[in-house]
Hints:
This protein is mainly beta. Helices cover 6% and strands 58% of the residues. The protein has one domain (2-400): Porin (Beta Barrel). Keywords: Signal. Residues 1-23 form the signal peptide. This is OprO/OprP family phosphate-selective porin.
Amino acid sequence: xxxxxxxxxxxxxxxxxxxxxxxxxxxxxxxxxxxxxxxxxxxxxxxxxxxxxxxxxxxxxxxxxxxxxxxxxxxxxxxxxxxxxxxxxxxxxxxxxxxxxxxxxxxxxxxxxxxxxxxxxxxxxxxxxxxxxxxxxxxxxxxxxxxxxxxxxxxxxxxxxxxxxxxxxxxxxxxxxxxxxxxxxxxxxxxxxxxxxxxxxxxxxxxxxxxxxxxxxxxxxxxxxxxxxxxxxxxxxxxxxxxxxxxxxxxxxxxxxxxxxxxxxxxxxxxxxxxxxxxxxxxxxxxxxxxxxxxxxxxxxxxxxxxxxxxxxxxxxxxxxxxxxxxxxxxxxxxxxxxxxxxxxxxxxxxxxxxxxxxxxxxxxxxxxxxxxxxxxxxxxxxxxxxxxxxxxxxxxxxxx
Length: 401
């Protein structure tokens, strides 16, 4: 850990004292490859107004209703060239894991037509594929964190034009040892019937299918608080799971300084000795750039530009609604005894999040979110469904280059 901190300190110092603080720091041209250095540092604070569950209890708790933590410390080297080759080597010094680490070859020099080998985000989920430093809210939607397949080792092919794209991949484990496992495949297609400056209408479909790690699956979610140690909805261990398949549908509309987007996921676990388990969820969000900026769009994902006025920065206001349903079963009443669970009752959760973001100049962002949770889950001790409705205040300070 000491080495990780020294590496991070040196990297931040290099970025701060570079001749000009842009989105990346140019290093050199070596072997025909233009090498740049990027980084992202995020520090979070969560304040919990608990209801029933202690959201920051357990072994990781600090005895208070608040948590403060360095969330990410990402260091990334990128190269362009020689020729049509691009490469990236990313590492998160906080989580001690590799990020995007891959080679990409642009077929015919076309950035929309490529082959990719290594570790990369799999072709599913609009929110997961969007840049982490420009998340609309501090925590990604609960359904995104639960269902989206993120970085895995594999190979991908992609093709498209300005208003459509198709990507297919085959993948295995995560590059860092002891993290996600399970070989599988995925595909995503997008179509933007409207794609002009500041006006975008986007639709997408995705599908992933993969082996369950050690034939076990557990579907659960935090209440949109990354520092929470407890989950309010939880399927429990589904020990006889063979494969998991998830279908995703997405839509986004940008008009000037307004952006609305939503995603729906339906996931099925194929089991050996039990009925298949199905769960689903969705989110809908809206974001307003108060200072008038709009978004870019490329490769089926939006991009956030710099403030029009760097001195005063770019202000955003947003609201999001999340819904998850991990119930796939029912209660069978037994005369004179406790109800018997037939299937899986993992619970339901609805979450409202309101937030504000401030991007200052080209390297700094501050975010503030307020999260309101309404959850319900079956309790064997209570012999019925129990509500747990906490509220959470979240803050983030971010530096990137």
